[in-house]
Amino acid sequence: MIIHAQQPIVEVHDLTVSYARKPVLWGVDFTLPSGCIAGIVGPNGAGKSTLLKTIMGLIPPSSGYIKLFDRPVDEVRSRVSYVPQRESVDWDFPVSVLDVVLMGRYGKVGLLRNTGARDQAIARDCLDKVGMAAFAKRQISQLSGGQQQRVFLARALAQESDIYFMDEPFAGVDAATEQAIIGLLREMASAGKTIIVVHHDLQSARTYFDWIILLNMRLVAAGPTDQAFTDETIQQAYGGRLNLLSQVGDVMEKRAFPSREN
Length: 262
Ligand SMILES: Nc1ncnc2c1ncn2[C@@H]1O[C@H](COP(=O)(O)OP(=O)(O)OP(=O)(O)O)[C@@H](O)[C@H]1O
Hints:
The chain is of the alpha/beta class and 262 residues long. The protein has ten helices and nine strands. The protein has two domains: 1-69 and 162-262, 3-Layer(aba) Sandwich (Rossmann fold), CATH 3.40.50; 91-161. The chain has a six-stranded mixed sheet, with helices on both faces. The chain is globular. It binds adenosine-5'-triphosphate.
């Protein structure tokens, strides 16, 4: 089931993506409007990260094409930000929190020019928005996982882009940080930004996202959450795994609360 956006700013057309000639995404087609928070949801290995990286032009598709703002991705790169999966980043790199956020400004000032007072002010303001202003001088390696995640979000904010791609921004963060991040994403969406998030948790997906792209190597459903994210489409995407997950949950609960048996 696909419900298309009326004035799309992200268009994915019949996209097939392969690694070493083996397709991992087949014929994926969807569009997104501006000012929405979209969730890419699906089981492990469904191709969520691959889809994100392909839309951003980091992986060439085997077939199909993508348009952002009605243009090829290469022409609008400065309007796009990426928050990678936390595990994919070398956090031992010796650099301060403020410098990491200032890197977000390179796209605006150019790699060979120094960032100025205005960039510093923007970077500090972005750190403030994610509640990390007090850590500006700290080495990035000396932060907790959730704090590092916030700093990467600040770096993306400092880019002042129009589309933000985020690969599991809630992985390893506590509930309060998760709420703070989703609040910030809502503010950004209200300001007309489009945010595309790879996400794992089915329950929160329903409340976090305006738009859902439900994937399992093929597109299962895409559209406004209330229409695309139904028991039927979730069952289609996850199949038998949902039953398995609930059985595992039951077993764990019985172990934790043996007296509840019967
Ligand atoms: N660089 C790569 N080379 C070969 N195969 C890859 C590569 N990256 C991913 N794959 C395979 O492509 C498929 C999709 O992977 P991808 O990481 O996009 O899935 P995902 O939905 O993001 O998974 P997860 O929820 O586990 O993070 C998987 O079968 C994976 O093993």
